[in-house]
Amino acid sequence: MSGGGGGGGGGSAPSRFADYFVICGLDTETGLEPDELSALCQYIQASKARDGASPFISSTTEGENFEQTPLRRTFKSKVLARYPENVEWNPFDQDAVGMLCMPKGLAFKTQADPREPQFHAFLITREDGSRTFGFALTFYEEVTSKQICSAMQTLYHMHNAEYDVLHASPADGRDLSGMEDGEDTPVTKLQRFNSYDISRDTLYVSKCICLITPMSFMKACRSVLEQLHQAVTSPQPPPLPLESYIYNVLYEVPLPPPGRSLKFSGVYGPIICQRPSTNELPLFDFPVKEVFELLGVENVFQLFTCALLEFQILLYSQHYQRLMTVAETITALMFPFQWQHVYVPILPASLLHFLDAPVPYLMGLHSNGLDDRSKLELPQEVRAQVLVPLGESHSSSCFDFLDKLQFVGKLWQVLWQLNEVVVNVHKAEVSLEVSEILMAFGIPPEGNLHCSESASKLKRLRASELVSDKRNGNIAGSPLHPYELLKENETIARLQALVKRTGVSLEKLEVREDPRCNKDLKVQCDEEELRVYQLNIQIREVFANRFTQMFADYEVFVIQPSQDKESWFTNREQMQNFDKASFLSDQPEPYLPFLSRFLETQMFASFIDNKIMCHDDDDKDPVLRVFDSRVDKIRLLNVRTPTLRTSMYQKCTTVDEAEKAIELRLAKIDHTAIHPHLLDMKIGQGKYEPGFFPKLQSDVLSTGPASNKWTKRNAPAQWRRKDRQKQHTEHLRLDNDQREKYIQEARTMGSTIRQPKLSNLSPSVIAQTNWKFVEGLLKECRNKTKRMLVEKMGREAVELGHGEVNITGVEENTLIASLCDLLERIWSHGLQVKQGKSALWSHLLHYQDNRQRKLTSGSLSTSGILLDSERRKSDASSLMPPLRISLIQDMRHIQNIGEIKTDVGKARAWVRLSMEKKLLSRHLKQLLSDHELTKKLYKRYAFLRCDDEKEQFLYHLLSFNAVDYFCFTNVFTTILIPYHILIVPSKKLGGSMFTANPWICISGELGETQILQIPRNVLEMTFECQNLGKLTTVQIGHDNSGLYAKWLVEFVMVRNEITGHTYKFPCGRWLGKGMDDGSLERILVGELLTSQPEVDERPCRTPPLQQSPSVIRRLVTISPNNKPKLNTGQIQESIGEAVNGIVKHFHKPEKERGSLTLLLCGECGLVSALEQAFQHGFKSPRLFKNVFIWDFLEKAQTYYETLEQNEVVPEENWHTRARNFCRFVTAINNTPRNIGKDGKFQMLVCLGARDHLLHHWIALLADCPITAHMYEDVALIKDHTLVNSLIRVLQTLQEFNITLETSLVKGIDI
């Protein structure tokens, strides 16, 4: 299990608190054995350091790598004893326990070194995935073996001799052992720093006592071990021999059942542990407080996201317990998901090669505490993607988290986007909620208490004290905002800036009341321990609430296997278990960057596999059972009080309930274990010797009692008796008002959930009984349709008085998912028999089967059923008639989409497609027109059999036809869609004689096609490709082959064969050398053709999109009789309107913006307007020759290049502008594309708008001498007043970041 909630092994049900008591240390019989694997790792590191390579951990002191002083070398530790020898349900793994109790082997110290005992936890993962937990206390004992002391002295003599040879000068022949302390040589420095002399020093060696347990009761086990160590170091012997206490823990202390607390006796005091019930979050006993103090809120979220997306994570600290605490906290916060990959929170020194694993992992690496962390680097061989050094308590400097996280490979760019990923799933709001909790406990949100003076001040303060401190001007009970409390707090300031993007006010953050001053119960543990429990559960509930909200509907998208479990499990790799496409289609858009990646992780796949394998509650994984119960509560709440689906953050409401459950268990202990007692030991056994852990008597500890009445018979009876008493007292504790309140709530809930069985009642009684429910559904439908229309119309609706500004901004995906929920509830009301998870799709399938049978039998009647052959009227040319209206055909489209796997997903996709085609009301009307089928499927009181309400319901849905939805196209972005192309050439001007090979390329908002070769003399074709989204441009051209390679194309039409959307791309230009502007390819901008409204449908008031120029653009045909038709005022107005359209585009909310390509290149776009400005006043050199604007621009380029060569430039700004202008014109002329002069001008305008250079170029060209030669005096570009006005208008585009579509700038790399 993830985190600390793991379980024990199989076999005989581990009902004991602890399985083993283990002692590890120095085996005096075998002596000092070097740890070869650890030494090899150190040697490799030292070699890299000497060769100049980047060491994995920077070396500590010069000359101390492989040739370390003996006190700092690695020696093997051994398991000296274990009690009992073995238990059948948890076989003892001697190698694993030995390595993890003392991961770096034995440590030697002298009396001059600190020898504080160190506690750490660890875990052992078995092959079947189950976990066993270990808790170790390492302390130092004096070495009494003279052989060991002599061996250490000998090693020091050898070490000093080697050091002398390597570092002393050749002329220096002095005896190192006889040097004076005052002499300042490297050897004496080394000896003073870390040496051993058998005659004057006392040698100490590390020893470890350890408990192996089936569950992670960290606090209780730590207390047991510390009290045992205290008994050893105390000058007075303990009340009983140590064997009595160890025997008690191993054999007489039971494992508390779920939801119960247990008290047992240590050597000097009672020890309490409590276990969550089956409906609470799993057991987790590590202090979350330490993690947030080390990293801070923002960094914890960054690390948490890395873990969720299954990166390789390496934690780094000099404290083993710190590694374990951070790793267990991160995995515990993942509830209900569980880390599925390599998980080694403490990596022994001999297993460093594990870091080369090419799979995701979460590992912890121990440092020696003297490393320079600012030089911490990863070698090329180590594939860790995220390295997290955990700040140490004695650190004198504070590192930014970007120094703490080091990224390698391609994931550098990915991780920089993590902030956006987390922001989009309410990182700001969750951070604020977590910060609120931390501040109530005196913990600053930025963490790292050792580096922040303001943080240490906050730690000494309590929110309740500040509120009631009248000396500071505060009045008890008055609100205290955290922003006032932490005005200078950088984390709060960053969060405040972050939440502005999500629309949440920081004023909503309230400091929680200090948990210490709100206790009605007297708990039987110390205050600090209670605060750890409270903080842990509050933080975990916030994270669990977030996942519960995000995955509240996950169950309906689970793909249940059609075969038996064994077959499914055998073929698991080839099976899909979750309808990802449909699930993502329901999610708010900001969630998608995170969810689309998270759904591909192994932890999510395993979570769904568990769901599939456990149909019954009895078989369910405990974590899954807890999560499903929380999801059920949310669903129940939504059924009782139907609310709009929303992407707004919903704060956690289960904290108080979870906290109270813990306090109740700690206030009244459910069971007290047997007290330790004297064992049947021989005389002289259990001898006490201060400072030394005694050699325990194995004969009394190896086996438990032959008949343990406490653990086998009485204990379960006691637990059952406690359960009955607890339920009884909880009931009696309610006063009359509370009892009445709960009974009333239960009745209300029951009446809401259960639908009355009214099939045998009269119609009047049925109508009366169901009126409120049916009326509620109808009212909800009315509110939803109005809300969706208001949201779609946006600010326009607010201006028309249809809503308030603060209700806009809800995601379209969220609103449509809410509508789908409503349709499912309507179709579920009054069902005879529920079939499948989607009542709507089930009804549609029945309708499809009926139609198929009737068509097969030839008995299909047209009465009451709309014919599928009807076509919607369209203003499109008759050359491409619109698709026929067919409910059955739309169903087949959905059934053919392989990405959609579940009935619920298919129903929602069908609703989205019908809405996009503006056929939802019509399709549902057709579905319900089969009255025989409706009567067969639904009872008399069902909503769908209430004619008046049904008609109103369909009328409300009809209102969706007033707006354009692209809810199918924009959501199912990866599906294959067939597109139909029609090219219409000019019939009069040689279209039939065209000999070249044409091609076409279609672009949309989601991508573009490859170049599609069109067969010669074929003007109509259908192809299939991945969804392009809304179409924007078409590139069309030919290869200029054959005798008549000239082609006049009137327009191109493209139709989406699923949604029916038809786009028209006007052209009206020649494609051919020597014709028009000599272009062999053109970029056409399209418009979406709107269908004509039916008689019974409301007209669509959404304005049509702009189109590309639909007439032949008459470039300046130089003739005295052909003057520009527009005057300067009209040209100025068209440029102003084009620029104003772009400005409005960027000031709209992103979801209301149209296509920027249309505003730039459309008929009334910026390119067309500037073209009119340059055409105004163009001179005529001679008859019958076309001169284009690009000819003028090329001459201007030549002029400025000549000036630059002659170094005759008026000023620096002009030089820069001229150089940029020439660079862009040259790049466009050198493009491999066969675009004509008009296409080149369009490309120059687009690039100039993107790079904010247009106004500079206009000023440059206005003063160019070439202008005087090629334009008449009345030309707009020669009027300085008009040019200055034009420049000011174009300057307004500078503040916008204009991104061009790929098709507009293809082939240009500037």
UniProtKB/TrEMBL annotation:
Q: Does the keyword Membrane apply?
A: yes
Per the database record, which ranges form the PLAT domain?
977-1085
Q: Where in the cell is it found?
A: Membrane
- For the UDENN domain, which residue ranges apply? 59-621
Q: Where is the signal peptide?
A: none
Q: What keywords would UniProt list here?
A: Guanine-nucleotide releasing factor, Membrane, Phosphoprotein, Repeat
Q: By its UniProt entry, which CDD domains does this protein fall under?
A: PLAT_RAB6IP1, RUN1_DENND5A, RUN2_DENND5A
Q: Does the keyword Hydrolase apply?
A: no
Q: Where is this region: Disordered?
A: 704-732
Q: Which GO terms describe its biological process?
A: retrograde transport, endosome to Golgi
One matching Pfam family is: PLAT
Question: Can you name a GO cellular component term?
Answer: membrane
InterPro entries attached here? Answer: cDENN_dom (IPR001194), dDENN_dom (IPR005112), DEN5A/B (IPR047278), DENN_C (IPR043153), PLAT/LH2_dom (IPR001024), PLAT/LH2_dom_sf (IPR036392), PLAT_RAB6IP1 (IPR047277), RUN1_DENND5A (IPR047294)
Q: Which GO terms describe its molecular function?
A: guanyl-nucleotide exchange factor activity; small GTPase binding
Cite the RUN domain residue spans from the record. 810-973, 1157-1305
- Per the record, the major location class is membrane
The entry assigns this protein to a family as follows: Belongs to the RAB6IP1 family.
By what name is this protein known? DENN domain-containing protein 5A
The species this protein belongs to is Sapajus apella (Brown-capped capuchin)
| Gene (UniProt) | DENND5A
